Sequence to fold (117 residues):
Amino acid sequence: QVQLVESGGGLVQAGGSLRLSCAASGRTASLYTMGWTRQAPGKDREFVARIWLSSDTTTYADSVNGRFTISRDIGKDTAYLQMNSLKPEDTAVYYCDVVVYGAETYYGQGTQVTVSS
Fold:
């Protein structure tokens, strides 16, 4: 089992920045990837970013590429999502997830990000 605790959401004006954190505990030696998805009101959950822990390879949704950066701290088993140049359309609940070797996926509880215009 892996437990995830997210933090860092909040209210910010358009053009501002936020950094989300996702701290993993439990079976962290088996972590394969860490990532973020988001869900806006009335919309389906969508992919945001992912990082492969063995290589630090990253991938982003087109909508956030160049504005968001995913990173991780090995020693703290924590992933971060630095969000810059935020837009009102980035407003959503952001969820952290981890995939472990064996392909199980664990999800965080979500953190609200609200961008005002």
